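Need residues for this backbone.
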């Protein structure tokens, strides 16, 4: 994206993975940001999932403690949460800190119930009491300082457990969507983190969300899927994707075949989205089309997940501009003709960005 396109064409949000130094936590960073902007911090539950070693149970669903930093007008400045993929920098033998907990279940729907009815600032021993009350049961206290909510047949609904080995240290900064240049806000957030000694963890990535409203035409979406499939490896090398980052992967073959089909390219936006849903796109890929397919409330976005961890706002914004240029090309290319090489792609998106910068509607 060139300097002549100062008014960024896409509303963009960022997820930046950091690590607090030993002895500090993401709550410390939340307090620092709130003090700088004259805002407040609200403790929240935030959903996460992780692979399970239990047979016939592919994932454990978690609620982790997050800290929502609100500006003086009550608008989000940043949400700071755990990221369960960040592990290498942690001492797993460190005892849990008082007041830090997580809630686990085998069903994300039950954790949604916990989010709606339970106060994350409540002590672990009683935090699930409102859920137990819904079932007319008493809390069950088990080994390992675990507290369970059960149903009338004593089947586990959810359990609250101490937070294991330094899990207060991982910190994913989730920004609000920015309608204008995000550099000043990102620079300030990352300066707060640097002053507290936060670093880039071993497995870190930066995920960037782009408002998907202008990507809904089927031919635009087709061009985007196909160009990212053809040049995904080139883009990984170009941006330096972190080889230690997990939960990445190529665009699924069934999604590519759909994007190639005449029926998809000729479909109206609603039908195209329905066809996309049938492909069951996953979040955990280099490029995430799941939010767009399912019209997730407040998160109808296209997400690019290939960017390496960084505390340099200039680098992060540069990666966002690269991806925006590809979106502009997908939106305005005349046909589904794809650039042949990586260099051809860079030339094509530069030309598309120059043309879009001169259009009054962009």
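Answer:
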């Amino acid at each position: 994206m060139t300097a002549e396109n100062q008014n960024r064409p896409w509303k963009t949000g960022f997820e930046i993975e950091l690590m607090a130094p030993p002895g500090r936590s993401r709550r410390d960073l939340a307090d620092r940001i709130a003090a700088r902007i004259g805002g407040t911090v609200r403790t929240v539950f935030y959903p996460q999932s992780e692979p399970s070693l239990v047979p016939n149970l592919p994932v454990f669903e978690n609620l982790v403690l997050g800290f929502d930093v609100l500006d003086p007008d009550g608008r989000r400045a940043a949400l700071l949460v755990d990221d369960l993929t960040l592990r290498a920098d942690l001492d797993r033998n460190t005892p849990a800190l008082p007041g830090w907990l997580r809630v686990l279940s085998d069903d994300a729907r039950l954790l949604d119930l916990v989010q709606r009815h339970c106060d994350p600032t409540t002590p672990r021993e009683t935090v699930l009491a409102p859920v137990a009350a819904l079932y007319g049961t008493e809390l069950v206290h088990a080994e390992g300082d675990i507290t369970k909510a059960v149903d009338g047949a004593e089947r586990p609904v959810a359990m609250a457990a101490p937070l294991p080995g330094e899990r207060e240290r991982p910190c994913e900064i989730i920004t609000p969507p920015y309608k204008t240049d995000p550099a000043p806000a990102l620079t300030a957030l990352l300066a707060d983190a640097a002053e507290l000694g936060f670093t880039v963890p071993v497995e870190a990535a930066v995920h960037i969300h782009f408002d998907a409203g202008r990507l809904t035409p089927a031919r635009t979406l087709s061009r985007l899927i196909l160009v990212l499939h053809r040049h995904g490896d080139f883009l990984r090398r170009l941006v330096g994707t972190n080889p230690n980052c997990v939960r990445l992967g190529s665009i699924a073959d069934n999604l590519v075949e759909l994007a190639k089909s005449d029926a998809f390219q000729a479909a109206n936006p609603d039908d195209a989205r329905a066809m996309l849903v049938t492909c069951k796109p996953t979040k955990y890929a280099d490029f995430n089309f799941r939010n767009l397919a399912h019209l997730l409330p407040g998160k109808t976005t296209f997400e690019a997940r290939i960017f390496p961890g960084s505390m340099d706002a200039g680098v992060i914004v540069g990666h966002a501009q690269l991806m925006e240029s590809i979106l502009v090309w997908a939106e305005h290319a005349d046909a589904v003709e794809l650039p042949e090489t990586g260099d051809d792609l860079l030339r094509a998106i530069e030309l598309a960005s120059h043309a879009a910068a001169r259009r009054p509607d962009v």
